[in-house]
Amino acid sequence: MTGANFGFAAPTAEAAGTEMTYIAAISEALREEMRRDGDVVVLGEDVGGSFGGAFKVTQGFADEFGDRRVMNMPMTENAFIGAATGMALMGLRPVVEVQFADFITTGFDAIVQFAATNHYRWGAAVPWVIRAPADGGISSGPFHSQNPEAWFVHTPGLKVVVPATPADAKGLLISAIRDDNPVVYFESKPLYRSLRGEVPEGDHTVPIGRARLARAGTDVAVVTYGAMVHQAVTAAQTLEADGIDVAVLDLRSLKPLDTEAVLELAVATGRVLVIHAANRLAGVGAEIAALIADEAFDRLDAPVRRIGGLDVPVPFSPPLEAAYRPDATRIADEVRALARW
Amino acid sequence: MGDIPLPAPPPETQLDLYRWMVLTRTLDDRIMALWKQGRGVGGTFSGKGHEAIAVGAGLALGADDVVAPMHRDLGCYLVRGLTPERIVANQLGRITGVTAGRDANLHGMGDLELGIIGFVSHLPQSMSTAVGAAMSFTYRGEPRVAMAFAGDGSSSTGLFHEALNLAAVQRAPLVLVVENNQYAYSTPLSQQMAIDDIADRGAAHGVPATIVDGNNVEEVHSAALSAVAKARAGGGPTMIECKTMRMLGHAIHDGAEYVPAELLEHWRRRDPIDRYRKRLLKRGVIDDEGVSTIDKECADAVEAAVEFAESSEWPDPASVERGVYAP
Ligand SMILES: Cc1ncc(C[n+]2csc(CCOP(=O)(O)OP(=O)(O)O)c2C)c(N)n1
Ligand SMILES: [Mg+2]
């Protein structure tokens, strides 16, 4: 197989843009959508006023858009996510910030029982977005480090996206806001200020449901998303010295999943490693491994392997969290084993 | 709120209240300093300004009672018997910490031997847990009491109301201490609720509520003693709303620029420890020398705790999967 790009977006430079951090790209997308569409409103704990959110994504928004559009919520996730559904039913496009993805559980009923099922049950669209700052690796302990995406991927009626680059952070958020369905948009906290990249100016959308080839390669395919994309790319660079040519597929969207891209790459390489920071057990990776086994079993040269977080609450202490969490070293080891298979 | 002067507690109690508050403040200040020096791990919280509540309420409990403190209640963990050593070691993620590196800062600092339920971030989950503890005392006919802490922000959650209602219906021996410190992260009371007193939320559920000056340790302690005695005697739950002020940011990273300087100044003049020191000096319960001795003892204890924690081992990465299930 050549280092072809298998028909999906090439890892070449995006259209001309501005370099910015991952978190600045999120702010930019939200600000541009609010300027474009008066129905886009923001709500969440501490998002308003001069404060602008725990991570400052909405800093300056209250000044520009006013308190009626950038709404500080009391500590009431269940109520304000439910209220977002009501706003969405009335034609607004609320963007809800849960302070940390870990606290999304307090609004779980409002998301999985009500918002997600409305369209199927009675044809009513719920065009909200929940922004959920997720992921760890920065000693934040069990309640500020979680990756709860699998719960939402398991829920019919939701869309789930996880951008890994500033460009996708912007493009996916704009697409999510314009989508007529409830979208849970997971942000990778460890990338917020550590990752910079070119972000296309203006109306830049990324279709929900399309993966991105983060790195072309022919020997082993790594399928991943979020901050793990960067660990995988680092591992792939290391593995050049071993003569192993690694492709990295950044899923970007977990639901809907770009099954075509996954299968195409699985067939092209015959060896697939699936990685996520969330617990491996019953994680999104299990579904991807099953998909490949179902659809491409006879084209594989090795069993699909998975790396994920351990089946424990995310531990706080650095040595424990390092043992919990996949990293480039573990990825490289696993890829070597797959390549030798 | 402080209209009728309370009879002073016995001198030993006064000294106890004072000593524990000073230890709390000294430890809190030291932890903040460690983080500012880059010696911390992750983030952490300060309970500065909350000492009278954490200590005054905590000391109202008996040895067999249980308490579910939150992230502002360093003093409560201390009076229940968690040593500064175990607390600092927890904050630094060491094996000798309360959670042996599993949970962060004041989270998870539970020890049932000491009657402490470990704190969970999701507010106010530990409040319903305390209601359940109280219900188990009733079920077993034990004369024990459960105390929970919750903030002004926490009091807006559905869970707060569900838990209060449950406690009321069950006549659970619960004392709920609400720390109304004017802010939930950056959100002021005016955006949190449309009422003046959180005590009204107790009344709505049939839980009698008293309002006290949260910076007056004797007032908090006295209200807590009455509520504990009432709960123990089968009189059901009580809420104590303590009005106070969060004197630093929400957490170590937060400069709290959104808090008006005059508000902080107003409360700085009501600092619970300064006020109590002056009072005890005036009453002659303590003299300047006594004050210095307590300061020195607390500083030494905290220094020893920091040394202990910093020289403690890190947890063994190979142990990461241990302890998820009870054996
Ligand atoms: C259910 C839930 N949502 C959000 C958070 C994030 N958070 C942590 S502390 C806090 C403010 C808490 O305010 P309050 O209850 O008044 O306690 P304080 O910190 O002021 O002592 C928030 C919003 C949380 N811990 N739990
Ligand atoms: Mg508060």
Features:
heterodimer; A: 341 residues; alpha/beta; Rossmann fold; 2 domains; seven-stranded mixed β-sheet; five-stranded mixed β-sheet; 12 helices; 14 strands; disordered N terminus; B: 327 residues; five-stranded parallel β-sheet; two-stranded antiparallel ribbon; globular; binds thiamine diphosphate; binds magnesium ion
Q: What's this model, at a glance?
A:
The complex is a heterodimer of chains A (341) and B (327). Chain A is of the alpha/beta class. Chain A is built from twelve helices and 14 strands.
Break the fold down into its secondary structure elements and pairings.
The complex is a heterodimer of chains A (341) and B (327).
Chain A: E1 17-21, H1 22-36, E2 40-44, H2 61-65, E3 70-72, H3 77-89, E4 93-97, H4 108-114, H5 118-122, E5 129-134, H6 149-153, E6 159-161, H7 166-178, E7 183-188, E8 196-200, E9 212-215, E10 220-224, H8 228-240, E11 246-250, E12 253-255, H9 259-269, E13 272-279, H10 284-296, E14 305-309, H11 318-324, H12 328-340
Parallel strand pairs in A: 2-3, 2-4, 4-5, 5-7, 6-7, 10-11, 10-13, 13-14
Antiparallel strand pairs in A: 1-8, 6-12, 9-11
Helix pairs in contact in A: 1-7, 3-4, 8-12, 9-10
Chain B: H1 11-36, H2 51-58, E1 66-68, H3 74-79, H4 84-91, H5 125-140, E2 146-151, H6 158-170, E3 174-180, E4 183-184, E5 187-188, H7 189-192, H8 199-204, E6 209-213, H9 217-232, E7 238-243, H10 261-268, H11 272-283, H12 288-310
Parallel strand pairs in B: 1-2, 2-3, 3-7, 6-7
Antiparallel strand pairs in B: 4-5
Helix pairs in contact in B: 1-2, 1-11, 1-12, 2-9, 4-12, 5-6
Q: If you had to describe this structure to a student in words, what would you say it looks like?
A:
The complex is a heterodimer of chains A (341) and B (327). Chain A is α/β, with parallel strands linked by helices. Chain A has helices spanning 22-36, 61-65, 77-89, 108-114, 118-122, 149-153, 166-178, 228-240, 259-269, 284-296, 318-324, 328-340; strands spanning 17-21, 40-44, 70-72, 93-97, 129-134, 159-161, 183-188, 196-200, 212-215, 220-224, 246-250, 253-255, 272-279, 305-309. Chain A folds into two domains: 18-199, Thiamin diphosphate (ThDP)-binding fold, Pyr/PP domains (Rossmann fold); 212-340, 3-Layer(aba) Sandwich (Rossmann fold). Chain A contains twelve helices and 14 strands. In chain A, strands 3-2-4-5-7-6-12 form a seven-stranded mixed beta sheet, sandwiched between helices. A five-stranded mixed beta sheet of chain A has the order 9-11-10-13-14, with helices on both faces. In chain A, strands 1-8 form a two-stranded antiparallel sheet. In chain A, strand 10 (220-224), helix 8 and strand 11 form a beta-alpha-beta unit. Chain A is globular. Mean pLDDT of chain A is 95; it is low at 1-14. With 327 residues, chain B is α/β, with parallel strands linked by helices. Chain B has one domain (11-309): Thiamin diphosphate (ThDP)-binding fold, Pyr/PP domains (Rossmann fold), CATH 3.40.50.970. Chain B has helices spanning 11-36, 51-58, 74-79, 84-91, 125-140, 158-170, 189-192, 199-204, 217-232, 261-268, 272-283, 288-310, and strands spanning 66-68, 146-151, 174-180, 183-184, 187-188, 209-213, 238-243. In chain B, the strands form two sheets. A five-stranded parallel beta sheet of chain B has the order 1-2-3-7-6, sandwiched between helices. A two-stranded antiparallel sheet of chain B has the order 4-5. In chain B, a hairpin with a 2-residue loop joins strand 4 (183-184) and strand 5. Chain B is globular. The model of chain B has no long low-confidence stretch (mean pLDDT 97). Chain A binds chain B through residues 45-46, 49-51, 54, 72, 74-76, 78-79, 99, 102-103, 105-106, 138-144, 310-313, 315-320, 322-324, and chain B through 41-43, 93-94, 99-105, 107-108, 120-123, 153-154, 156-159, 184-187, 191-193, 257-258, 314-321, 324. The structure holds thiamine diphosphate and magnesium ion. Residues 151-153, 181, 183-184 of chain B line the site of magnesium ion.
